[in-house]
């Protein structure tokens, strides 16, 4: 089953993230810009149509003049104005020119032109200003403007001249709708272009990653190789570098494991060949004394092989890169004591003096028990590391030799020291003895794993192993160094 996090990433990729970030902002800006443009265009359209209506009304007002008989009438220009207005309003326009004698009752006026039933304008205090208003006429919405002025006929009679033009709103509504459609089309085209550019840009940017993916898939079943970072966007380059670093570490680990298996196979092949030869000799042996000697040699070889297998397992565990989990505070002094007690019998078999120096010797009498040399590490792993150091000392120290184990603090570090008066190791060769299956000088005969195991356990717990010359000038000092504990036990 695919993990939920992977499903979420597959549903919401880089393209979707960019579009989710850009589209709301772009749509908001386009909506605001379109609304402002629409309002400006609507005002422009309304102004254009209103200008035609106002010009027609003003022209009609100027076309009223006294006739030869002194009565007010429309001159010849009124018909031309009417034709032009009908053409401009697309047959939706209406006109009304009326004369109302001053001082007469409402409805007593004389219609000079147009429709008498055209809705009248609302009363306005300023009769000189145009009055704009909307209404309905003959079942459709109309836009109207009215002009009022005072005129006199040839006899001096004063009249109120009322000129009114009306136009259906359908043409201007259609013009506004067409402009709005064009604006929306431009906005939709802009959004599609942005989406296309984002899609193509992300695809183009991810093309090197797709190339890397194909190269990784093609290497299936092969040893991992560093990725080619050529052409990769610089934002992704740190990720590729981190992957290459991880690949290099993995290759190093594989090389170490391959070398370890090869060395282990070589080390195990020799004792197995010896035991096979000894078993063949035992099968042909008739003398019981020689048979028992051969069997004892086989038991010795089996014990050595068992020791080698145990060391190989310890080395595999110690080489684990992960640090011990939840390490408690351990007493390095107590661990050295336990290791010395464990190996006393083996040392006595070689008539060696294996001693332990208690770090509490200088402690005041009656002091409360507490770790003498506290370290925050895994006690079992430290025990294994010191056990390998002590075992090496016993193996390489001659009969009757002296081995001393002690713990303490040196220059701010917690130390456990195993010193012997054996042959020692030349200073130039001390670094190589920590390599697996490597021996140095007179210290030969084992598998060459003890110091490698001890250092691996020390490094897992944040420390190291240092080799130095013994105080007397002969022999070797193996020093386990660890950072002191930052907190006390309990």
Tell me what you see in this structure.
By secondary structure, this protein is an alpha+beta fold. The chain folds into four domains: 4-28 and 177-217, no CATH class; 49-175, 2-Layer Sandwich (Beta-Lactamase), CATH 3.30.450; 237-317, Helix Hairpins; 325-359 and 371-482, Histidine kinase-like ATPase, C-terminal domain (Heat Shock Protein 90). It is built from nine helices and 14 strands. The chain has helices spanning 4-11, 14-62, 77-88, 170-218, 237-284, 288-318, 332-349, 379-396, 450-460; strands spanning 64-66, 72-74, 93-101, 110-114, 131-137, 140-152, 158-168, 329-331, 353-357, 374-376, 402-410, 413-420, 464-469, 476-482. A five-stranded antiparallel beta sheet has the order 4-3-7-6-5. Strand 5 and strand 6 (140-152) form a beta hairpin. Helix 5 (237-284) runs antiparallel to helix 6 (288-318) and helix 6 runs parallel beside helix 9. The longest helix has 49 residues, at 14-62. It starts with a helix and ends in an 8-residue tail after the last strand. 23% of the residues are buried. Residues 1-9 and 364-368 have low confidence and may be disordered.
């Amino acid at each position: 089953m695919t993990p939920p996090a992977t499903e979420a990433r597959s549903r919401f990729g880089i393209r979707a993230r960019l579009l989710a970030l850009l589209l709301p902002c772009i749509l908001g800006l386009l909506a605001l810009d379109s609304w402002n443009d629409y309002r400006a265009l609507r005002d422009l359209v309304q102004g254009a149509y209103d200008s035609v209506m106002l010009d027609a009304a003003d022209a009609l007002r100027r076309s009223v003049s006294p006739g030869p008989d002194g009565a007010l009438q429309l001159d010849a220009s009124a018909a031309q104005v009417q034709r032009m207005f009908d053409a401009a309003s697309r047959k939706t326009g209406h006109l009304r020119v009326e004369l109302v004698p001053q001082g007469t009752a409402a409805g007593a006026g004389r219609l000079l032109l147009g429709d008498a039933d055209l809705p009248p304008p609302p009363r306005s205090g300023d009769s000189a200003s145009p009055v704009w208003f909307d209404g309905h006429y003959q079942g459709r919405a109309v836009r109207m403007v009215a002009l009022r002025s005072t005129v006199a006929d040839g006899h001096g009679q004063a009249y109120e001249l009322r000129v009114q033009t009306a136009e259906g709103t359908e043409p201007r509504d259609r013009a506004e709708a067409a402009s709005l459609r064009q604006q929306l089309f431009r906005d939709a085209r802009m959004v599609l272009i942005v989406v296309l550019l984002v899609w193509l840009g992300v695809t183009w940017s991810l093309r090197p990653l797709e190339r890397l993916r194909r190269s990784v898939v093609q290497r299936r079943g092969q040893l991992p190789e560093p990725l080619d970072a050529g052409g990769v966007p610089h934002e992704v380059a740190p990720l590729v570098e981190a992957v290459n670093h991880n690949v290099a570490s993995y290759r190093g680990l594989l090389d170490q494991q391959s070398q370890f298996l090869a060395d282990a196979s070589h080390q195990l092949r020799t004792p197995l060949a010896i035991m096979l030869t000894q078993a063949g000799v035992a099968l042909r042996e008739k003398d019981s004394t020689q048979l028992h000697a051969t069997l004892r040699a086989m038991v010795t070889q089996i014990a050595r092989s068992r020791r080698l297998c145990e060391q190989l397992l310890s080395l595999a565990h110690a080489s684990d890169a992960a640090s011990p989990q939840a390490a408690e505070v351990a007493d390095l002094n107590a661990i050295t004591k336990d290791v010395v007690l464990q190996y006393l019998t083996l040392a006595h078999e070689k008539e060696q003096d294996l001693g332990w120096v208690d770090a509490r010797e200088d402690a005041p009498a009656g002091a409360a028990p507490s770790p003498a040399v506290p370290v925050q590490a895994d006690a079992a792993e430290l025990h294994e590391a010191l056990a390998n150091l002590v075992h090496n000392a016993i193996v390489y120290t001659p009969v009757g030799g002296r081995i001393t184990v002690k713990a303490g603090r040196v220059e701010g570090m917690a130390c456990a020291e195993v010193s012997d008066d054996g042959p020692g190791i030349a200073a130039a060769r001390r670094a190589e003895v920590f390599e697996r299956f490597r021996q140095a000088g007179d210290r030969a005969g084992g598998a060459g794993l003890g110091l490698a195991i001890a250092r691996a356990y020390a490094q897992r717990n944040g420390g190291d192993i240092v080799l130095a010359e013994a105080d007397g000038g002969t022999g070797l000092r193996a020093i386990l160094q660890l950072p002191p504990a930052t907190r006390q036990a309990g």
